[in-house]
Amino acid sequence: MEKCKNLKWMDLYKELEELVEKNPDIIIHDKVIEIPSANKSKFYFLFDMLRDAFIKEEFTEWLKKAELLSTAYLKVEQDLIRLLDLKQIFMPNNIKRFLNDPLDQLRRGIFDLLFDLIGGETEIQDFIIKARDKIDFSFRQLYKQGFNKWIALALLKQFEPDEIFHVPLDKLDSKQVIKRSVSAKEVLPFPIKSKDLYFEIGARKALLTPDAIIHSAKMNKYVSFRTELGRAMWQANSYSDKREWYSIRSLMEQYGVAEIRPDILIYIGDNMEDIALIADSERICRPDILVECIDDINIDDTLLREKIEQINLHYTTLNPTLGGFTISKQEMSKHISGELKREIKLLDINFQKETRLESIVKLAKYPDV
347 with 363: CB under 8 angstroms? Predict the structure, then answer.
């Protein structure tokens, strides 16, 4: 099996075909998969090697970038775990797997397609086209979300956190949603100390609260972060009178937006209860700093133009009190600088220079400078 590690994916496919042909008790057709235990180890070894080889050959440069992102992310994750004595950083499983081992997550996308090919349900050219398309779509999404998570954690680290808190909202089940009175309002729990950091994982939320609230030793203030801004289901029973609140409906009517989803919202306050609510079903809290991220994979002209339009619209719509930043890989800056609103600062970065994010902390600490 050692020799297989250097084979091209087409050569591995031929080996897999031969294995199936020589062993008629291996049955793969009509969604029926039966692989006797005597052949199972070799079959799945070739199967997994083939998937990996396909991705390495078809997406060589992207995979190199993903591996650099993985290394950078895992470093800052370990730094924060050590700094804050964290147990875990929660996020959607597919993003977590991608950041830990890009190839392990990406190979999952062509599992069924490869079985269809081996079972004769699709031709090899169809497999190539479908597998390329599926990996392309998955890669773009995962890299973008992973890049944003790395930026969020690297930025959080620059604030020199010495404590971390989260807002303990109850998880909603279908019965609660169905039985809920339309006029009922949700009580916002007080933030509590935490040993975990919770990135949004797609569950239905009564209210939108921060991914994390930290106490910043550098500023001696509380700082809250929110990524993946979705829609809250219910209305809060109260709002901090120390913050400014926008009507979501008014924003949508005024600016013609269907949704407001900036990459990272940052709030700063002397009391953490004032920055514990990001939005409910009716209102959104005006952020102090808006951070947008542009990765170096989703960069064709159309996608880049759409992203820049979104960044400018988010800035105009939410009008952050201190300002906005757009963070991009260094090689992207020349494509972006002239397109952003002049109030938005462009910050180019690479995986070895996360300390450049300190300029965002300086704006938060010295807003009048």
Answer: no
- Cβ neighbours of residue 104 closer than 8 Å, sequence gap 6 or more: 97
Kindly report the backbone phi and psi dihedral angles of residue 342, in degrees, each rounded to the nearest multiple of 5, phi listed first: -65, -20
32 pairs with which residues across the strands?
A: 29
Residue 219's identity, in one-letter code, is M
Q: Which DSSP state fits 280?
A: -
Q: What are phi and psi of 79, to 5 degrees?
A: -60, -45
Give the model confidence (pLDDT) of 168-215 as tens digits. Answer: 987 766 666 556 666 678 899 999 999 999 887 656 688 999 999 999
Output the six-digit token pair for 79. Answer: 């730094």
Query: What 8-state DSSP symbol labels residue 356?
Result: G
- pLDDT tens across 243-277, in order? 999 999 999 888 877 778 899 999 999 999 999 99
Q: Which residues pair with 326 in a beta bridge?
A: 292, 346
H-only helix segments in the chain:
9-22, 37-58, 60-84, 93-100, 102-106, 111-118, 124-158, 174-179, 248-255, 301-318, 333-336, 358-365
Which residues sit opposite 29 in a β-bridge?
32
Distance CA 357, CA 293 (A): 12
Q: What are phi and psi of 293, to 5 degrees?
A: -125, 135
- The DSSP bridge pattern shows strands 264-269 and 289-294 to be antiparallel
What are 144's two structure tokens?
Answer: 């973008």
Answer for the pair 315, 290: CB distance below 8 angstroms, yes or no.
Answer: yes
Kindly report the three-state secondary structure assignment for every residue of 69-110: HHHHHHHHHHHHHHHHCCCEEECCHHHHHHHHCHHHHHHHHH
